[in-house]
Amino acid sequence: MKNILVTGGAGFIGSNFIHYILEKYDDVHVVNFDALTYAGNLGNLLDVQDDPRYTFVHADVRDRDAVDAVFEAHEIDTVVHFAAESHVDLSITDPQIFLSTNILGTGVLLDAAKRHWSDAPEDKYCRTYRPGVKYLQVSTDEVYGALGKDGLFTETSPLLPNSPYSASKTSADLLTRAYGETYGLPVQITRCSNNYGPYQFPEKLIPLMIRNSLLDIPLPVYGDGMQIRDWLHVSDHCSAIDTVLRKGTPGRVYNIGGNNERANIDIVRLILKAVGKDESLIRYVRDRPGHDRRYAIDNTRITTELGWAPRCTFEQGMRETVQWYLDHSEWVEQVVSGAYRDYYRDMYGTAQ
Ligand code: NAD
Ligand code: TYD
């Protein structure tokens, strides 16, 4: 039996990953460790809450005692670290929490994994660990900074993060690497492109634009709307992480992306069309400071070395995603709490 510690499992990708793992494997125990910030929602996991293979622990990754207790109580052998502050716009207005959660939180987890898995925790030269243990750091393509018109990010591209969010994720990514190099901890790092799909909090582009168009609220497009992201359905991110856990080499970095570059404005238009609204709802607003122009992933390593490939086309994924938000208006309204309204007012200057 594998005992997987999934941090941030109540968030967008973490909850999709828990669903994915429990559907795919019988002989597994998933411990969801989540502080339930504004972005964490146990409503994402109602269908698994009584599954004997699932345990929820309400705690903060920066809390060393809580992390230690979980390693001890559940004999954790695998860590998949999603928990993070994840929204670039928030990192511009309130960077400190990003440094604390994303960097220090990662440090606490790495240290716990090292101590609990080491064959000789008191020996600083010990580089051997219990067989089969693994720590996977969920990083992002944003660590590479921005691209011009041409080129793709490979795993050896320079790390040049531009936002406080991406700088904090880069720090966590490098700390993970350091635990691999210095202590021989079996770490892996994945750097994925932008995800979309069910259970994404409506602060991010796609769910925000779907919700606004359904409610006839203006759609705020930053700058000229020609920034490009490389979009991947969240189910493909989950299968890629599972593939890296099963087949990846310790110490190695894997880019994850689906060769699917789209300009923001094209996505906004596609959403408006899908919900039957016209383009008069589009509002070009002041650009995000330090806005990265283009991200695009070279996924050669994971496709050729590990045999992973994305399965969901953008057309199918977007059709299903728009339908999911139409079918889950209750979920959307539940997460759109008072705190979200304050966030929206701060960000866009209007009450939704
Ligand atoms: P999210 O904001 O939806 O979820 C984050 C989760 O972490 C929430 O459940 C929150 O409650 C939890 N959390 C936050 N601080 C915590 C703390 N101190 N202790 C414990 N739990 C805490 O984020 P997401 O979009 O699901 O992203 C998950 C991970 O994937 C992040 O590390 C992010 O950097 C990375 N990533 C995201 C994308 C994307 O497109 N969303 C792409 C690549 C990588
Ligand atoms: P986002 O979903 O915040 O992801 P990231 O910044 O991590 O790529 O934003 C995706 C793109 O959409 C990014 O170029 C910023 C843009 N955007 C808007 O134009 N308007 C919005 O209201 C939001 C949230 C994002």
Average residue-wise pLDDT: 95
**Count of discrete alpha- or pi-helical segments spanning 4 or more residues:** 12
The CATH topology of the domain at 3-196 and 233-259 and 294-312 corresponds to: Rossmann fold
Cα-to-Cα separation, first versus last residue:
47 Å
Order of neighbouring strands in the sheet with most strands: 3-2-1-4-5-6-11
Q: Give a short account of the largest sheet.
A: 7 strands, parallel
Q: What name goes with the CATH superfamily of the domain at 3-196 and 233-259 and 294-312?
A: NAD(P)-binding Rossmann-like Domain
> Strand portion, in percent?
15-25%
Would you report the number of β strands? 13
Question: Bound compounds, please?
Answer: nicotinamide-adenine-dinucleotide, thymidine-5'-diphosphate
Description of the structure:
By secondary structure, the chain is an alpha/beta fold. It has a domain at 3-196 and 233-259 and 294-312: Rossmann fold (3-Layer(aba) Sandwich). A seven-stranded parallel sheet has the order 3-2-1-4-5-6-11, sandwiched between helices. Helices cover 41% and strands 16% of the residues. The protein has twelve helices and 13 strands. The longest helix has 22 residues, at 96-117. The chain starts with a strand and ends with a helix. Helix 5 (164-183) links the parallel strand 5 (134-140) and strand 6.
List keywords for this structure.
single chain, 352 residues, alpha/beta, Rossmann fold, seven-stranded parallel beta sheet, two-stranded parallel sheet, 12 helices, globular, binds nicotinamide-adenine-dinucleotide, binds thymidine-5'-diphosphate
